[in-house]
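Continuing the batch. This is chain 6 of the set; chains 1 through 5 are on the previous pages. Same settings as before, nothing changed between runs. Recording input and output for traceability.
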Amino acid sequence: MIKVIVIENNDADHFAVDKALAPYGNKFELFHASTLSAGVAEIKKNGCDLILSDLHLSDSSGISTIVDLKRVTDAPIVVLTCTDEDETISGAIRSGAFNYLHKSEMNGNLRRAILAAKANHDLLTEKKDRIMEMLRFYFPTTNSVNHC
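Output for chain 6:
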């Protein structure tokens, strides 16, 4: 089961997320937050596997929403928004979002966007862990001081 925190201030959009994922039964465990601060509190309290977030919330707006989320979690973020502006989309990705989905396209694509973001995140985490393991092997830290 994938634990998803949905940070969205519009009740109709919360319902749309629930409806889009309902056919997939117990594959997703959804937690709803209507503000960034409520979403951050849920992340700190219970963690999550993935975040679906609007960019425009009552207590956060734009790319800063993603930046603030990345400060508290490494979980992949899928941005849900109504804008089609290229600058917003590329800014969201550059700021750390793994995927972007227009709210009008949720019904057929939300599950796929979540699974792709989760798979990409897991792959990157695995590669990062391998690189760190290699660095520790080739450059072990020692407590001794090298005197020349």
